[in-house]
Amino acid sequence: MAMVEQRIEHSHLAIRGLNLHVAQAGTGELGTxxxxxxxxxxxxxWRHQMLAVAAAGYRAIAPDWRGYGLSDxxxxxxxxxxxxxxxxxxxxxxxxSVPKLTLWQRISEPC
Length: 111
What we know:
CATH class: Alpha Beta
CATH superfamily: Alpha/Beta hydrolase fold, catalytic domain
Radius of gyration: 14 Å
Number of strands: 5
Order of helices and strands: EEEHEHE
Number of helices: 2
CATH architecture: 3-Layer(aba) Sandwich
């Protein structure tokens, strides 16, 4: 099988009153892998992994959280809660028609 060069495509989706930036690669014959950046990172932290899983036949998705990277800043960032991130993520997955996925998240260790 010939290796197909993968490219990362970028879009913005209107999610819960904000325009959220989403980076995607691959077509997803084998499923979808979701990459979530830590704080204060952006989608770009996952670029190499996205291309690798896309080349292996997966759809790779890496959004910028609200207020990070190319996503909109919420009107009152100090009032944001983790539930906002969860609701954003669920709405984003619905907008992208992702019924099932594999999740990769970078978790920082305490200093």
